[in-house]
Amino acid sequence: MSLIRLGIIGLSDGNGHPYSWSAICNGYDAAAMAECPFPAIPAYLAQRRFPEEAIAEARVTHIWTQDRLLSEHIAKAALIDTVVDRTTEMIGHVDAILLARDDAKNHSIHAAPFLEAGLPIYVDKPLALSVADAMALHARQRRPGQIFTCSALAYAAEFQATTAEMTALGPLRKVEAMTIKDWDRYAVHVIEPLLALVGKDSIVATRASGDHTRHLDVEWRSGLTGRITALGTQDGQISITLTGENARREMVFRDTFSAFRAALRHFVDIVLGKAPPQNTAAVLEVVRLIEAGRAE
């Protein structure tokens, strides 16, 4: 399989991924994309070179949203050939699915027919808001590794650190992670890359607090402590700060296109057999912290 055909499902409130993810695979029509209701998307796409920066091995060929007119606009903007009226019409015509909605409560209903059909499916962040729901989704797989899910920010260059850079910090003593918007949809953006940076140190305690601004205080076995914050309606940036014995490092997310492209690239490589399936235990650890942060 040299070119995989993708079906994309959207749209949830405040989430323009069907526009951006499809364009990253297909390229786009600049005039139609200019009318995208998420102005940041045509702005960052315009800074890139197409078709050079498109994912050559994948093409979004089918789209469904809950609004036919919206589907047709996304299709025009992102060069998608086929608009369907029911998601299940894609089965038999695509090789994998992009579930580009971040309303976790609806993930199971949208994913179920494709899991039953054995199709690989990329489920937008967060996979679920509880470990029980995440495990229930994984239990519906026809084969291990059928589900791929992530925050694309886990792939952001801004949130990566080399072994030498981590060594220079010294043993970590404190971590702080902050994201804009609400906990349920956006905390995953810093939880996932933060866990990757901390490594295999196991979590021994958590405590949630706050209302509109939500905090989760975390303690690791090594004695490392941290706070994860979702700012709610407050202004801010998406950032992770690492404080070690020797130095402190602030990491601020800026490049949406590159993060999205890297995450999609990884999913495509898994579908093509060029990369191993995702580690389910790591996914569940992310969901565990999302659930802990929702505790009253």
Written account of the structure:
The chain is an alpha/beta fold and 296 residues long. It has 2 domains: 4-152 and 257-289, NAD(P)-binding Rossmann-like Domain (Rossmann fold, 3-Layer(aba) Sandwich), CATH 3.40.50.720; 157-253, Dihydrodipicolinate Reductase, domain 2 (2-Layer Sandwich). Helix content is 34%, strand content 23%. It has 11 helices and 12 strands. The protein has a 6-stranded parallel sheet, with helices on both faces. It has a 6-stranded mixed sheet with strand order 8-9-10-7-11-12, covered by helices on one side. A hairpin with a 3-residue loop joins strand 8 (203-210) and strand 9 (214-220). Helix 6 (131-139) packs antiparallel against helix 11 (280-293). The mean pLDDT is 96.
Structure at a glance:
The protein has 296 residues and is of the alpha/beta class. It has helices at residues 17-26, 30-33, 40-45, 68-77, 107-116, 131-139, 163-169, 183-186, 188-198, 256-271, 280-293; strands spanning 4-9, 58-64, 82-83, 96-99, 121-124, 147-150, 172-179, 203-210, 214-220, 225-230, 239-244, 248-252.
Number of domains: 2
Output the CATH class name of the largest domain: Alpha Beta
Helix content: 25-40%
At CATH level 2, the architecture of the largest domain is: 3-Layer(aba) Sandwich
Strand-residue fraction? 15-25%
The major sheet is characterized as: 6 strands, parallel
Q: CATH superfamily of the largest domain, called what?
A: NAD(P)-binding Rossmann-like Domain
Radius of gyration: 19 Å
How many angstroms does the end-to-end distance come to?
48 Å
Question: What ranges have pLDDT less than 50 throughout 5 or more consecutive residues?
Answer: none
**Outline, from the CA principal axes?**
globular
The overall pLDDT, averaged over residues, is 96
Count of separate DSSP helical elements: 11
- Secondary-structure-derived class: alpha/beta
Total DSSP E strands: 12
Predict the CATH topology of the largest domain.
Rossmann fold
The H/E string reads EHHHEHEEHEHEHEHHEEEEEHH
Oligomer: single chain
Order of neighbouring strands in the sheet with most strands: 3-2-1-4-5-6
